TrEMBL record:
It comes from Pseudoalteromonas arctica A 37-1-2. Pfam families: Glyco_transf_4, Glycos_transf_1. This is Glycosyl transferase family 1 domain-containing protein. GO terms for biological process: carbohydrate derivative metabolic process. SUPFAM superfamilies: UDP-Glycosyltransferase/glycogen phosphorylase.
Length: 353
C-alpha cells in the first residue's frame, strides 16, 4: 500500500511561528506513516528540529524581488511538484499562496492554503487582487482563528474553510516554577508588539517597585525601548533579555504573562504562557487572544487600547495570589486542546478525508 504523500510549501524554514508549525506537523505526519516533503521557496537554514524522514527541498538560486523573481520561483515549484507527485499540497503564506495554487493546478495536485497574518492587515493591492481571484481554486483553506475564517468567508476566498489553531510546543516539565514577582512577555521587538505601552503600564502599576518586567526577544525596536527604560529610570526593574533558546527557563521564574500586541495571526507566545501555566492578561487584538482566553476564567482579556482597564487588571493579578491561582487552574485542558497530536489530526483529517 502506497503511503499518502503530503507536500508542504513554505517560504522558508527560518525561525518563526509559521515555520515551527510546519516542522511540528511534518514530524507528526512522518511518525504516523505519511511521506512528507517540504518545498522551501526561498533558500534558508532550518531553524527547528526535523525528522530525518522529512524531505526538504531548497532552491539553488537566490530570490530577487520582482516579476522575474516570482517567475523563477513558479517554475521551480511546478517542477518540484511534478517530480514529487504528492497526494495533497498545503501552502503557507498569503504572499506566495496564489502562486502555489497555480503551480498545483498545473501539476494536477489538490492544494489547500493557509494565511498566517492578521486577517485585517492591508497587503499590497496586487496580493489582495490575486487572493480574490485565485483562492477559490484551492481545495480548501485553513484559518488559524474564528476571526480569520469570518473574514475569509466575507471576502469569498473559499467556501471550504476549517479553523485549526497552532499547536503547542513541548513544555519543558523539568523546570520547577519559582513564581517570583516577575511579569514576562515574549515577542519580536517590533511596533505591533506594543512593548513601549507595556513598559508604561508596568511603571505606572508597580508603584512599590516590588516587581520586575522581563521582555524576551530581539528586533528593530530594541534601542528605542532601551532608551525608554533608561530615560524613565527603570533599569533595575525592566529587563530586555534578548532572544533566547531556553524560554522555559525564564517562564519558570515568572508569575504573570502580559501581552500587549495590537496585531497577530495567532499568538503562540500567549498560548504557551497559558499552558505553562502563567496568569495571563492580553489585549483583545485581531486575531487570536479571544480564541485562547475566556475572560476572567483562564485570563484577563482587555479591550484593545483600553490602557486604564489593562492597568486595573494587571494590578489585580499582581496583588491577588488567589486570583492568579484560579486563573491557571485549568491549564491542563489548554495543553490537551492544543497538543501537537490533536492539532495534527485536525490538519490531516481536513487534508485527506
Amino acid at each position: 500500500m502506497n503511503k499518502k504523500k503530503l507536500c508542504i510549501i513554505v517560504p522558508t524554514l527560518k525561525m518563526g511561528g509559521m515555520e515551527r508549525v510546519v516542522c511540528l506537523l511534518s514530524n507528526y505526519s512522518v511518525a504516523n506513516g505519511f511521506h512528507v516533503s517540504i518545498i522551501c521557496l526561498l533558500k534558508s537554514k532550518v531553524a527547528y528540529e526535523l525528522d530525518d524522514r522529512v524531505d526538504v527541498i531548497q532552491p539553488k538560486f537566490d530570490y530577487k524581488a520582482g516579476l522575474m523573481g516570482k517567475a523563477k520561483v513558479f517554475f521551480y515549484l511546478t517542477s518540484a511538484l511534478l517530480k514529487i507527485k504528492p497526494t495533497v499540497a498545503l501552502s503557507f503564506s498569503e504572499v506566495f499562496n496564489p502562486l502555489s495554487i497555480i503551480s498545483s493546478r498545473i501539476s494536477n495536485v489538490p492544494i489547500y492554503i493557509s494565511d498566517r497574518s492578521n486577517p485585517h492587515v492591508n497587503l499590497r493591492s496586487i496580493i489582495q487582487l490575486l487572493r480574490k481571484f485565485i483562492y477559490p481554486f484551492a481545495a480548501g483553506m485553513i484559518a488559524q482563528t474564528q476571526t480569520a475564517k469570518s473574514v475569509a468567508l466575507e471576502k469569498k476566498y473559499n467556501k471550504n474553510i476549517a479553523v485549526i489553531a497552532n499547536p503547542l510546543r513541548q513544555i519543558e516539565e523539568s523546570n520547577i516554577p519559582v513564581n517570583k514577582n516577575i511579569i514576562i512577555s515574549v515577542g519580536r521587538l517590533i511596533a505591533t508588539k506594543n512593548f513601549s505601552e507595556l513598559i508604561d503600564i508596568f511603571s505606572e502599576v508597580d508603584s512599590m517597585k516590588s516587581w520586575e518586567l522581563w521582555i524576551l526577544g530581539d528586533g528593530p525596536e530594541k534601542n528605542v525601548l532601551q532608551g525608554q527604560i533608561n530615560s524613565n529610570g527603570l533599569g533595575d526593574h525592566v529587563k530586555l533579555i534578548g532572544a533566547v533558546k531556553n524560554v522555559d527557563d525564564y517562564l519558570s521564574q515568572a508569575t504573570i504573562f502580559a501581552f500587549t500586541s495590537v496585531s497577530e495571526g495567532f499568538p503562540n507566545a500567549l498560548s504557551e504562557a497559558i499552558a505553562y501555566p502563567l496568569a495571563c492578561i492580553a489585549y483583545n487584538c485581531p486575531a487570536g487572544p479571544s480564541d485562547l482566553i475566556r475572560d476572567n476564567e483562564n485570563g484577563f482579556l482587555i479591550p484593545l487600547g483600553d490602557k486604564e482597564c489593562y492597568k486595573i487588571h494587571l494590578n489585580t493579578l499582581m496583588i491577588n495570589a488567589s486570583t492568579r491561582k484560579r486563573i491557571i487552574s485549568d491549564y491542563e485542558l489548554h495543553r490537551e486542546k492544543y497538543h501537537i497530536d490533536n492539532i495534527s489530526i485536525k490538519y490531516l483529517s481536513f487534508l485527506f478525508d
